[in-house]
Every structure is written in C-alpha cells, then in structure tokens.
C-alpha cells in the first residue's frame, strides 16, 4: 500500500513548469481549501482535477489516499454526530472532508508532478543550505524503503507466531514491531550518512547540480492566474 | 554535556529516516484509535510523544524538529488526521521544548523523562487543541477534555516507552550516543 505518492515521470505541460510555480499552485489550492467557502473549495477541487487530467496523472494512484480519507471521514462524522447532532453534524463533517480532500489532492499533485531534485534546487535557489535542501529528496526516496522494512518485520514476527488478524492481536503485536523498526531505521540512517559523506556530501559549502531550473514567461502567467483565481475564490 | 545543536550528516539523515518510521507508526496507531475512540487519540498521543522524545534525544536539534516535520508533511499528504495541519506546529514546538528540558538533565532517571514529557505533551497538545476547536469545531469543553486525556496518556505511556527504547538503544551501542 503506497502511503505517500511518488513522482510520476511524464512530459506534460505541467511537468515542464518551474517548481516555484508548481509550489505557488499548490499553495493557492491549500489557501482556498482552508479559507474559502464550501462552493469555492468545490470549484478549486475541480480546477485541481482538470490540472491532474492535463498532467496525465494515473487515477489509480489515489486509491490508497481515498481509503485513508474514508477512515478519517468516518471519524469526523462520528465526532460531529456526538457533539453537533445529526443534521448540523453531517453538514460540518461533509465540509471538513471536502476541505481535507482538496488539501490532500493539491499536495499529492505537487509531489507527483515535481521531481524531488527540483524541490531541492528550489530550496537552494531560495538560499537554503544544500545540506538541508536535500532532505526532502531523501525523504521521498526512502519512504518506500522503510515501508518495505515494515512489511518485512511484520512477516518475520508472523513467522515467529505473532498474529495480526484481530484488533487485539494488532495492539499486542505493536511493540514487537516498533522496536525492530526503530533499530532498523537507525542502522539504515548510519549507513546512508556514511555513504553520503564518503561521496563528499557536506565537504564543500556550495555544490553544483547536473540540472538547473528556470522561471519562464509561461510559469509567470500560470502563477499569476492561480494567485488571482485563489484570491477571487477566497473573497467570493 | 550533550550537544543541543547537531547538523552533522548522521543526525540529519537519521532524523529523516526516524521521521518516516514515526509516520508509519502513526498510521497504525491512528487506525487503532479510530476503531476505539475516534474523538480521543490515545495510541496516537503515546506514539507522538515517544517519537518526539526519541528524535530530540538521539539527534538533538534541528534533527528533532526534522523528525516531527517529516511526519507532519506525510500526515498532511496522506490525510492521516483532520487536524494534521496543526501537526507542523505541534511537532516542531513539542520537539524543541523536549530538547530544552532534556538538554539540562542527564536523562538517566525516570523523573527526568517524566518531566521532559510533561513539557512536550503540554506544548504539543495545546497546538492540537487549537485544531480541535477550529477544524473539528468541537465545543471548547469537549476539546479540552479530549486534549487532557491525550496529554495524560502521552505523558504516562511515552515516559515508559521512551525510557525503555532509549535505554535499549544505549545498551545496543547501535548509535554512538556520546555526541
């Protein structure tokens, strides 16, 4: 189960945009999701969806997110029903789910159509020291690795007789999974850090990159359009 | 004396990887909480406080904050919780406040871990309380009760878990903890 969406390799018009304009696009989506009226949030969600189609992002990638969101939605509905009654509770829960979906969708699009290295380059251009700017790249790269480690630990404990079928068994098996996972991550971190340092990471205060990013006129137009649209939707 | 500020590669990379583990563990614990107590995050609170403490203890700052922010980032992208947006603030401030306390103590006694957890949990849960009131629109009294329960569970559960895991790690010599 892919918890965090990975970069989708493509050559669409959106894929070719500068990471700074993509970040502004994402922030516009988030701003409307947080501050807009429900009608504005719905409109922004549709705008995001059109961009998703333009970027040819495969819809199957949202399956896990939809599953996670549905669990969160159930939690929201239960909480709102307890404290705000049936009608008001359902309306409030629906509104919160809509905002959350818009926020999630914007975030998932950003990580799917922006190469992790472009995010690092954006950080460097904005004056962030490269040692810190490279960390999101590392995070995106190692999420699937750690997910595989977790799966491996679950299977190892299962082979040793631990069962994870019922909720009670999952609760009981929590610690035997937690400790090996923490130990594995620390060992893995040490190995990666050593490998990076032997390749010269952190030796010089500045470093060069194989590729560069540039903010074109098309980026400017797209960014300005999104800023205006989000401003209109928030004040509407 | 433990170093408060560490920007070596081992600490930065370790912080990111522990942040990913933090995120994976939070995914499991939030699902368990959703089944038993949707309004009160007990397992989520305990694991949050444990990993906030481990990040600050093992790697110092700013890696402790990196651990928390990595989790907050993925929590927002994957819709882990309706109040996930407030995790950025809670995780950052929680880790920083834990470091401020643990930096001055030897962290060899139970009381040291308890004191540091009290401070981190109060700061972190105060941030999430804002989310419960503004995002979930819970009545303030209900939000405060929910936060107090999460905070209490976090302080007790995470003190025990952190001490156990931290002592085990020190014994294993897996990390050169003598900064």
- Spell the H/E element sequence of chain B: HHHHHH
Shape of chain A: flat
Through-space gap between termini of chain B: 9 Å
Secondary-structure-based class of chain B equals mainly alpha
Mean pLDDT of chain B: 86
Helix fraction of chain B by DSSP (H/I, runs of at least 4):
over 70%
Please count the helical segments of chain A: 10
How far is the N terminus from the C terminus of chain A?
39 Å
Unreliable runs of chain B: none
The stretches of 5 or more residues of chain A where confidence is low (pLDDT under 50) are: none
What structural category arises from helix and sheet content of chain A? Answer: mainly alpha
Counting DSSP E segments of at least 2 residues, the number of strands of chain B comes to 0
Shape of chain B: globular
Q: State the helix count of chain B.
A: 6
Gyration radius from CA atoms of chain A, angstroms: 21 Å
Descriptive overview:
The complex is a heterodimer of chains A (236) and B (179). Chain A has 236 residues and is an all-alpha fold. Chain A has 2 domains: 19-115 and 212-235, no CATH class; 135-198, no CATH class. Chain A has helices at 19-35, 38-54, 63-84, 86-113, 116-125, 130-133, 135-159, 167-172, 174-198, 217-235. Chain A is flat. The radius of gyration of chain B is 15 Å and the shape is globular. The model of chain B has no long low-confidence stretch (mean pLDDT 86). Chain B has one domain: Arp2/3 complex 21 kDa subunit ARPC3, CATH 1.10.1760.20. Chain B is built from 6 helices and no strands. The longest helix of chain B has 33 residues, at 140-172. In chain B, helix 2 packs across helix 6 and helix 5 runs antiparallel to helix 6 (140-172). Chain B is mainly alpha-helical. The termini of chain B are close together. At the A-B interface, helix 3, helix 4, helix 7, helix 8 and helix 9 of A face helix 1, helix 2, helix 3 and helix 6 of B.
């Amino acid at each position: 189960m892919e918890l965090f969406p990975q970069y989708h390799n493509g050559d669409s018009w959106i894929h070719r945009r500068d990471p700074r304009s993509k970040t502004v696009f994402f922030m516009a989506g988030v701003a409307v999701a947080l501050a807009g009226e429900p009608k504005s949030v719905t409109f922004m969600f549709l705008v995001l969806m059109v961009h998703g189609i333009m970027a040819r992002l495969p819809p199957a990638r949202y399956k896990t997110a939809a599953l996670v969101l549905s669990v969160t939605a159930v939690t929201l509905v239960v909480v709102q029903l307890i404290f705000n009654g049936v009608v008001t509770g359902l309306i409030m829960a629906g509104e919160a789910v809509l905002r959350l979906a818009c926020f999630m969708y914007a975030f998932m699009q950003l990580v799917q159509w922006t190469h992790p290295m472009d995010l690092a380059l954006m950080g460097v251009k904005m004056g962030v020291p490269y040692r810190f700017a490279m960390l999101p790249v590392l995070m995106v790269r190692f999420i699937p690795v750690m997910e595989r480690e977790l799966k491996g630990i679950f299977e190892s404990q299962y082979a040793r007789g631990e069962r994870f079928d019922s909720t009670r068994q999952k609760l009981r098996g929590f610690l035997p999974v937690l400790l090996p996972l923490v130990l594995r991550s620390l060992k893995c971190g040490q190995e990666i850090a050593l490998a990076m340092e032997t390749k010269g990471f952190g030796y010089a205060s500045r470093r060069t990159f194989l590729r560069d990013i540039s903010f074109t006129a098309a980026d400017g137009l797209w960014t300005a359009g999104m800023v205006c649209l989000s401003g209109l939707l928030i004040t509407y | 004396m433990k170093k408060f500020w560490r920007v070596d590669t081992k600490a930065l990379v370790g912080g990111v990887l522990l942040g990913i583990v933090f995120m994976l563990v939070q995914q499991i614990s939030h699902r368990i909480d959703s089944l038993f107590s949707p309004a009160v995050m007990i397992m989520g609170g305990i694991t949050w406080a444990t990993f906030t403490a481990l990040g600050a203890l093992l790697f110092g700052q700013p890696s402790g904050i990196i651990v928390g922010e990595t989790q907050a980032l993925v929590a927002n992208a994957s819709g882990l919780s309706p109040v996930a947006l407030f995790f950025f603030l809670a995780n950052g401030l929680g880790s920083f406040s834990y470091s401020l306390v643990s930096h001055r103590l030897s962290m060899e006694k139970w009381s040291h871990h308890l004191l540091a957890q009290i401070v981190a949990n109060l700061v972190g849960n105060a941030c999430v309380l804002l989310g419960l009131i503004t995002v979930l629109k819970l009545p303030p009294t209900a939000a405060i009760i929910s936060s107090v329960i999460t905070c209490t569970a976090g302080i007790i559960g995470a003190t025990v878990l952190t001490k156990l895991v931290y002592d085990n790690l020190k014994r294993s010599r897996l990390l050169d903890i003598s900064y």
